[in-house]
Amino acid sequence: MSDDTDKTALRTLARTRRRAFLTSLDPLAHRLAFKAVPSPLARRLADMQTVALYMGLDDEAPAQRLAPQLTAMGKTLALPRVIDRLGSMDFLAWTPEDQLHPGLYGTHHPEPSGPAVAPDAIIAPLLGFDRTMNRLGQGGGYYDRAFARFPDALRIGLAWSVQEQDALPADPWDLPLDIILTEIELIEGPDA
């Protein structure tokens, strides 16, 4: 089986596990998840200005719930804007009061004519992760390209704990995460 086939099967399994987990999760626990920036992460973000979030789709971990606390910490927030179907994405400044505009693949982003910003930290969705800090995304390469474009940005994966895998295949272009935040723990990579 090729790495592409492995990743396709892993994506299917990850979506099924995530959906089953969220169906069984207590509604209160779901509403409270990801409402706070843990202290170790807050310390890592202390000297950073711009933090890129995302608007969670379907059953993705909801990064937008971190916005109030990040704003209170004085951070400029940004959301991704998918530019094309070839994996191009930039980040636009955003506040929770801003109207969002529909984008590709069901995404939403700030006013498209706004200036792009360079994030100091990128909080990324994922389908799976492992303890070696590998991330399994949707397969379009958007975040891989963003991580490469902003090599100094702190790479943070946001996930439900059930999305952890024993090991994930990694291609040469896959950049490992620095931190993974789940509803139950903060995992820091060896270089964190």
From TrEMBL:
<comment type="similarity">
    <text>Belongs to the 5-formyltetrahydrofolate cyclo-ligase family.</text>
</comment>
<keyword id="KW-0460">Magnesium</keyword>
<feature type="binding site">
    <location>
        <position position="55"/>
    </location>
    <ligand>
        <name>substrate</name>
    </ligand>
</feature>
<protein>
    <recommendedName>
        <fullName>5-formyltetrahydrofolate cyclo-ligase</fullName>
        <ecNumber>6.3.3.2</ecNumber>
    </recommendedName>
</protein>
<keyword id="KW-0067">ATP-binding</keyword>
<keyword id="KW-0547">Nucleotide-binding</keyword>
<feature type="binding site">
    <location>
        <begin position="7"/>
        <end position="11"/>
    </location>
    <ligand>
        <name>ATP</name>
    </ligand>
</feature>
<dbReference type="Pfam" id="PF01812">
    <property type="entry name" value="5-FTHF_cyc-lig"/>
</dbReference>
<feature type="binding site">
    <location>
        <begin position="135"/>
        <end position="143"/>
    </location>
    <ligand>
        <name>ATP</name>
    </ligand>
</feature>
<dbReference type="GO" id="GO:0046872">
    <property type="term" value="F:metal ion binding"/>
</dbReference>
<dbReference type="GO" id="GO:0005524">
    <property type="term" value="F:ATP binding"/>
</dbReference>
<dbReference type="GO" id="GO:0009396">
    <property type="term" value="P:folic acid-containing compound biosynthetic process"/>
</dbReference>
<feature type="binding site">
    <location>
        <position position="60"/>
    </location>
    <ligand>
        <name>substrate</name>
    </ligand>
</feature>
<keyword id="KW-0479">Metal-binding</keyword>
<dbReference type="InterPro" id="IPR024185">
    <property type="entry name" value="FTHF_cligase-like_sf"/>
</dbReference>
<dbReference type="InterPro" id="IPR037171">
    <property type="entry name" value="NagB/RpiA_transferase-like"/>
</dbReference>
<dbReference type="InterPro" id="IPR002698">
    <property type="entry name" value="FTHF_cligase"/>
</dbReference>
<dbReference type="GO" id="GO:0035999">
    <property type="term" value="P:tetrahydrofolate interconversion"/>
</dbReference>
<dbReference type="GO" id="GO:0030272">
    <property type="term" value="F:5-formyltetrahydrofolate cyclo-ligase activity"/>
</dbReference>
